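Z., the sequence and structure:
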Amino acid sequence: MSVMRAPEIPEMWADPDRMLTVEDMEDMPDDEFRYELDDGMLIVSPAPSLPHQIAVTQLAVVLAAVCPPG
């Protein structure tokens, strides 16, 4: 199991009293992490792994097949 390093966050985003905006999100790096805003708070998580994505896709196919119309 590998340990993922935490992304380097600009110092201005480390201020807990500052609400982030969509404009702030435009400056986020394009790396292996997922960046989200939740009421102005930055949430950083690793991207889903390939096995996770495969499992989600297979589950969606099974559920769609048994889901009643409407």
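DSSP finds two helices and two strands in the chain. The CA atoms of residues 51 and 57 lie 10 Å apart.

Let me know what you think.
H.
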